[in-house]
Amino acid sequence: MRKHMLLSPEQIRDRYEDLEHEEDEDDGLSSAEDQTEDQTEGGVRLAGDLGYDNGFGWYVQGFIEDAQGGLRPQNTEEGLFCMGCHASIGATVDSTFAFARKVTGAPGWGYIDLHGMPDAPIVDEQVGEILQYFRRVGGGDEFRENQELLERFFDKDGAVRTEEVASKDVYELISPSRSRALALNKAYWTIVRAQSFIRGRDANLAPMQNVYRQVDPDTAPTLSKSKQFDSDIRLDWSSRK
User: Fold this and answer.
1) pTM (two decimals)
2) What DSSP string runs through 6-31?
């Protein structure tokens, strides 16, 4: 991602309103550099070798492994996969997740070291974000399929071992064992060799079980109120000094 234009809060708000109404209008903010390419794809504007213009002052250009393991530019469908999070997802701050969540102060601008990094809570929350995630999801990943994390941090009845999780740093909470890491590497290698990124980029060691086998297109999905949460993506590092 490369920031090429700063927008005022008012301009950002206007652009979100445009997205909400599914409008595709030129508001006159594009610079001469922006006008290198006017072609659009999937609701976002292509910008030639610069990648995609997300409409909020960022160029997004992604590279991914080719079949031999080297990097190549992503094709259009693969690029739009990235734009799904860096365009109009609404949960980001200025189209990114990282800056609003980095460690406060100078250490936040260096290389990330997960060793010793505390499980910081989201702003206005009381427990670490990872612990909160485990509690809400009932597992260590969205599909509750990561058996290693289930064995490490959950009882047989599905309850989180709160004290165990709270005693670990981020490295211990999210890093796989050596054997699992090697297995995941092999699984991802099959994706690279097949170049099947459009079918997903996460390496799975076995077919997912906690997914719907069939979805009725005429029935809107529902999620109980107890599973719906409003929260901030920023992390409160001050609570973990």
Assistant:
1) 0.83
2) ---HHHHHHHHHHHHTT-----S---
